[in-house]
Amino acid sequence: MTQALSVLDKKLGGLNPRTAIVLGSGLGSLSGELRDPVRVSYADLEGFPHSGVSGHAAEVVAGHMGETPVIMLSGRAHYYEKGDASAMRLPLETLHGLGVQKLILTNAAGSLRKEMPPGSVMRISDHINYAGANPLIGEPGDRRFVGLTNAYDVEMADQMDAAAREVGIDLFSGVYMWFSGPSFETPAEIKMAGMMGADAVGMSTVPEVILARFLGLRVAAASVVTNFAAGMSGDEISHEETKQMAPLGGERLASILRHMLSG
């Protein structure tokens, strides 16, 4: 048992969450809604990343959402910080060690669809690993050959869609393309992404999906749209814009997740 798993196991006491959420930009406040929360800083968990991205916290929060025990990772490490696609491996392995079976991933993304403006929410139906990196490079044995035909769990997707309908929020569905970052995409790259079938672009999540499937976790994912992708509006894109716009779609996604998990 790793130090991180041991610490969290003791802190959680009798709480046995089977669902985990990785909170992306705009979703940080969701952890404050948990009943009787247990909070543990990443700094107290050996091997957990210390995200260097403004707007991202760095703590594990566990508690109940409605009647459902949930554990949340408030903050993630990104590939572009150190060039390590497996940066989130230990946190996800720790969740798996705690008995988590379902993982919900969230992120901020740029939209390639005119009808999906900033403030929208898109459930990720599939992804394109344009960055080309993989968190399982160097993993020995045949387990590394992870099938991704069903990377995104159909039952969890249906539950997310149903929750969105019940709370009256339009939930788009589409393909997420992972760029390495940290620079934003060029208009030419966005044109290419659209031709390849992408509906949104971003700099995270895909390595976590691969790791989660490697560990046998069921996965659902959603993007909060913070901007139109490069070349679509004529405006330059910035991280400041991402931080400003994320709470708009973040509250919509939070409402969906709240309803999805509180039943």
Automatic annotation (TrEMBL):
<comment type="similarity">
    <text>Belongs to the PNP/MTAP phosphorylase family.</text>
</comment>
<comment type="pathway">
    <text>Purine metabolism; purine nucleoside salvage.</text>
</comment>
<keyword id="KW-0328">Glycosyltransferase</keyword>
<dbReference type="Pfam" id="PF01048">
    <property type="entry name" value="PNP_UDP_1"/>
</dbReference>
<protein>
    <recommendedName>
        <fullName>Purine nucleoside phosphorylase</fullName>
        <ecNumber>2.4.2.1</ecNumber>
    </recommendedName>
</protein>
<feature type="binding site">
    <location>
        <position position="227"/>
    </location>
    <ligand>
        <name>a purine D-ribonucleoside</name>
    </ligand>
</feature>
<dbReference type="InterPro" id="IPR000845">
    <property type="entry name" value="Nucleoside_phosphorylase_d"/>
</dbReference>
<feature type="binding site">
    <location>
        <position position="204"/>
    </location>
    <ligand>
        <name>phosphate</name>
    </ligand>
</feature>
<dbReference type="InterPro" id="IPR035994">
    <property type="entry name" value="Nucleoside_phosphorylase_sf"/>
</dbReference>
<comment type="function">
    <text>The purine nucleoside phosphorylases catalyze the phosphorolytic breakdown of the N-glycosidic bond in the beta-(deoxy)ribonucleoside molecules, with the formation of the corresponding free purine bases and pentose-1-phosphate.</text>
</comment>
<dbReference type="GO" id="GO:0004731">
    <property type="term" value="F:purine-nucleoside phosphorylase activity"/>
</dbReference>
<feature type="binding site">
    <location>
        <position position="185"/>
    </location>
    <ligand>
        <name>a purine D-ribonucleoside</name>
    </ligand>
</feature>
<dbReference type="InterPro" id="IPR011269">
    <property type="entry name" value="PUNP"/>
</dbReference>
<comment type="subunit">
    <text>Homotrimer.</text>
</comment>
<feature type="domain" description="Nucleoside phosphorylase">
    <location>
        <begin position="20"/>
        <end position="261"/>
    </location>
</feature>
<feature type="binding site">
    <location>
        <position position="56"/>
    </location>
    <ligand>
        <name>phosphate</name>
    </ligand>
</feature>
<feature type="binding site">
    <location>
        <position position="25"/>
    </location>
    <ligand>
        <name>phosphate</name>
    </ligand>
</feature>
<keyword id="KW-0808">Transferase</keyword>
<dbReference type="InterPro" id="IPR011268">
    <property type="entry name" value="Purine_phosphorylase"/>
</dbReference>
<feature type="binding site">
    <location>
        <begin position="76"/>
        <end position="78"/>
    </location>
    <ligand>
        <name>phosphate</name>
    </ligand>
</feature>
<feature type="binding site">
    <location>
        <position position="108"/>
    </location>
    <ligand>
        <name>phosphate</name>
    </ligand>
</feature>
<dbReference type="GO" id="GO:0009116">
    <property type="term" value="P:nucleoside metabolic process"/>
</dbReference>
<dbReference type="GO" id="GO:0005737">
    <property type="term" value="C:cytoplasm"/>
</dbReference>
